[in-house]
Amino acid sequence: xxxxxxxxxxxxxxxxxxVLRRAPDHPGGWRxxxxxxxLVSALTPVLRAxxxxxxxxxxxxxxxxxxLDQTLAVLSAEIGFTLTPVALTADQRDKFYLGFSNExxxxxxxxxxxxxxxxxxxxxxxxxxxxxxxxxxxxxADPDDLVWVHDYHLxxxxxxLRSLGVTSSLIFFLHIPFPPPDIFLKLPWRAPIFAGMLAxxxxxxxxxxxxxxxxxxxxxxxxxxxxxxxxxDLLILTVDGRQVRLGVFPIGIDAASFERAAAxxxxxxxxRQLRMAVDGQQIILGVDRLDYTKGIEQRLEAxxxxxxxxxxxxxxxxxxQIAVPSRTDIPEYRNLKQRIxxxxxxxxxxxxxxxxxxxxxxxxxxxxxxxxxxFRAADVALITPLKxxxxxxxxxxxxxxxxxxxxxxxxxxxxxxxxxxxxALTVNPYDIDGVADAISEGCRMPLIxxxxxxxxxxxxxxxxxxxxxxxxxxRAGALPVPGTLATTLDEGE
Length: 493
Ligand code: GDG
Description:
Largest sheet: 9 strands, mixed
Structural class: alpha/beta
Helix content: 40-55%
CATH architecture of the largest domain: 3-Layer(aba) Sandwich
Distance between the termini: 33 Å
Strand order of the largest sheet: 5-4-1-6-7-8-11-10-9
CATH topology of the largest domain: Rossmann fold
Bound molecules: GDP-alpha-D-glucose
CATH class of the largest domain: Alpha Beta
Strand content: 15-25%
């Protein structure tokens, strides 16, 4: 069997890296927009560098999905890898994507079980769509291909693939946290979801915390049938004589591209404009999809407390909060937007004085160069998710900070804290006073300390970039596991 660099890669995720919108005036009748979010940011450079195929939903519903082939062929040629669509019906989009994926798994796996909506009708749609994805993959995959399935929407795809007779190596990567047993066991469909994960050959987690939570769940759910053994950097679970590899692979960014793009004339000019607009004040920056896991409300409260507890910050700092629209079809997200905008208004109403407005709030996705300029211009990045699988924004901020003078304030509950925590100011995002004090400390940090911390952060981001990550996962997915392992363990019992 060829080793991993030469094996064809089929990447599968709920979303393709582009979203198609009907546009009668465009050639083919469709207009393509870039997809949002961390998974697309991370995987696009990997597929560009390596080639292969990306299977996913193009954002269209089945009723609309005619004449896509020509548009996707043109886009595939432009992007450098093959885009293969999976169509969903409007009902599947509602129950599988908005419903089971984003109202059940997303909150539960972020430890926010009280936000989960365990509607009984969602799971059947989840299984149905996983079957649909499997049918498309089965048509495209050869036995020698590596099939790499991403994220919580597609946990049950491997089981469906196996039942269709697909024998390719199947890798699953979870881009969100895996919760501890106390929380996971609340899931009414815990048995089929857990069995779905065990049907892969390799399970990739972002941090050791997530992998260990998975093992703790396995110990409770499978009890005596389970054997866990370490092998290289991986753990091997043997269940009913079948082996599943578990690995920890902290996802990175395309750091070199970020550094290059941050250094361009255009970004430098925009950075200067942003700095001039705040007239000598320090910029504190928040960048998030507008999502309740990102802790934006708690962050705004902490900023309000910082202005109250540390009045010397008034007139000297501006908080720039970029909130990218996300999942706007879900009522919870629309309510959150209203609460955030209410808070911004309240805080600005309370503190605005003599032309100084403490919070600038941006509700849209910025063009890449503008985003980079915001990273470069910010003295402090305030990244305080309540829980986050990794948080790529933390890494992007460091990569873009060419002058090495930025301060990173980072939630201890972001996966990124495992790698970056030692050189960031780590905070508990629920501790409003603690975050307020960290804001003050970040703004007062002496230059020499800022530079030392940022240099170490940048080194970590550069060394563990997205290519290192993808390579580690694919290598682990392609390794032949020693067949004697289960026997050895049986003999040792
Ligand atoms: C999930 C997990 C995990 C943001 N604003 C703009 C913009 N962005 C880009 C950022 C970054 C991406 O969106 C967000 O990535 P994150 O990792 O921070 O968060 P999620 O979207 O929740 O990602 C996360 C990730 O998957 C990967 O495994 O790290 O924990 O939740 O790349 O730059 N991009 C542009 N304009 C914006 O205004 N162009």
